[in-house]
């Protein structure tokens, strides 16, 4: 373990035991057996240390969240949702630093990367024709709800926690955003196809040589309105 990693281990231990306020440059330096100038050289200041600590926690988060993907993106969304919540409950202090401080400096990377991972799964749901709203809307809904539920559970004393809340919230979101809980006859086919086509075009490199920039923007606007069930312009 090199000096930098030793200091991050010490800071993570202090964060877990006493929260953000317990992490001081003097205490971390002493616990890691280095001088204060070493910490300043490696991290700049306390905010730089917290930023590095959030990234350090994110590596742990990635290691736990990298579950094998299946052919069912909705099932993958369920499994990664529970991995996310369980990570927060297992590492409450580092989770709060990573997600509870957004959009602060230390929370930025964790938030961006987690959002990108979530969006990839939801894009697959759209490509399968099983998403009832736009990819962007679904991503924001799942991200905001997942982080909010996890932070609320962390803030609740363990004896009072309703661990079924996370599953209940997930079920509500899936019913609102996917077709899995709806009879096929009730699913608006045009809207679903618009969502799927919008996402397919987003990742189609050949489309760049077929449509002009203005045509791509116009088509994207039409597909977004069809996906939302609003084919008429509000202008």
From TrEMBL:
Q: Where is the HTH tetR-type domain?
A: 1-61
Gene Ontology molecular function: DNA-binding transcription factor activity; transcription cis-regulatory region binding
Q: Name one Pfam family in it.
A: TetR_N
User: Which superkingdom is the protein from?
Assistant: Bacteria
Which keywords appear in this protein's UniProt record, sorted alphabetically? Answer: DNA-binding
The cross-references to SUPFAM superfamilies, in alphabetical order and at most eight, read: Homeodomain-like (SSF46689), Tetracyclin repressor-like, C-terminal domain (SSF48498)
The protein's matches in PROSITE patterns, at most eight in alphabetical order, are given as: HTH_TETR_2 (PS50977)
Which residues, as ranges, make up the DNA-binding region of this protein? 24-43
Entry protein name: TetR/AcrR family transcriptional regulator
